[in-house]
Known about the structure:
mainly beta, eleven-stranded antiparallel beta sheet, 6% helix, globular
Amino acid sequence: MKRTERTNRITGLAMTAAGLATAAGLVLWASSGADAAEPSGFSNLPDTVTLTGIVRDFRERQVPGGHPDFELRPAAGFAHYYGIVQDTLDAEGKPVFRSTGYKRLTQWVDGQGRPIIPSRDYIAARSGDVAGSMSESEGGAVTGAERLRQWFRDVPGVNMSAAFPITLERVPGTNRYVFDDKLDTNFARLNGFFIVNNTLFGNSQGGNKNFHFTYELSTEFVYKPNSGQVFTFTGDDDVWVFIDDRLVIDIGGVHSAVSQTIDLDRLDWLVDGQTYSLKFFYAERHRTQANFRIETTLNLRNAELPRVTGMYD
């Protein structure tokens, strides 16, 4: 893609106040994109970064062989739920069931008004943080531990998997990289982040789109304190992000688009110049939307992809 074409495509990003973010994955290709008009600190940055993750397709609960968590209506209603997964990953680097979720009543936010994860002892508090609230009883946003375990593992007869790439584009004049289904030419045409239409198990019952899948990305980055390393995701449905195997974004449940941000300088165990993992887990579980936006200032490193059940066509 020519520089002028790319700039025209995402110029609107530079005019927004969207939170910074990242996703994780395998860096497959990047162009140099040096431009005399760029600030000197950004002139050596590539224009694009392509990340490859693993998509797993599921049948919805209403059809034979369907997974009970897909097209599930939570007992407490459609909403953002906290606490579905534990604060640390298991030995295989996968999320672990904690509860059926606690419905968000009011949002935790930081001093800039950005939604953040509820307080954790491993995430430093900041002046201006405002505590939110959640229900005291579980809300039934998932059906149990063993079924949640299947979301991000290949299980014959339950799901099918394939590699799938996404490309983040750098906002001109900045070090921010963005993937937004509303700006990506292919996904804008599909009206959403529909990455397994007409493939794997096929489209959802009675429609021309596939709403029932998970997607995981994994990468490494080098921590640079006080450099503005921030991660934001906006979308639906469930999203969990782990840095160094600790939960830093918690957007569980079946809901419309929800945003959450983590400022890496709040993770006070990170050490300047050290390399850390970032793992990203996403689930699309319900009609009628599939929103997906990631943005990053992190320098991504290669990550080895897990084996998959089929080649993505």
